Amino acid sequence: MNGFLQNIIGMGDMSDSIIASDLLISTKSGVKMLAFAVTEAATAEARAALSAQLLAAIDMHDKIMDFMIEKGYYHPYNIEDQLHVDMQAARTALQIPLPD
Q1: What torsion, rounded to 10 degrees, do the Cα atoms 55, 58, 64, 70 define?
Q2: CA 44 – CA 98 distance, rounded (Å)
Q3: DSSP for residue 97
Q4: What is the rounded CA–CA span in Å between residue 91 and residue 11?
Q5: Separation of alpha carbons 55 and 91, rounded Å
Q6: CA–CA separation, 62 and 31 (whole Å)
Q7: CA-angle at 59, arms to 51 and 45, nearest 5°
Q8: Which one of 1, 30, 61, 74 has the lowest number of neighbouring Cβ atoms within 10 Å?
């Protein structure tokens, strides 16, 4: 196993935070794309199917955000706490050696 992977494995809670953040960002992107698709759908059936998927994606976003808030990974209502979390993540990322 190379040093890069060894360092990531040792990050523990930080890895969970990164995975959750990536999932939240992906879900946000999915919500935007589904909302766009609903407005472009050619038939009522397609709009209904896409609308159902949009509601499911919004629900998923809500659950991920609640999880992240509960774990202390995300502070949407406290900019100072969120800045602290983001700065710590940036410092940690800068300490990970790049693969050869």
Answers
A1: -110
A2: 50
A3: P
A4: 13
A5: 36
A6: 11
A7: 15
A8: 1
Question: What CA–CA distances, in Å, run from 30 to 16, 53, 62, 74?
Answer: 21, 10, 13, 19
Both tokens of residue 45? 């059936």
8 A C-beta contact, residue 8 and residue 16: no
- CA separation for the pair 32, 54 (Å, rounded): 9
Tokens 């995975």, residue? 19
**The residue to which tokens 């940036």 are assigned:** 90
**pTM of the predicted model as reported, rounded to 2 decimal places:** 0.74
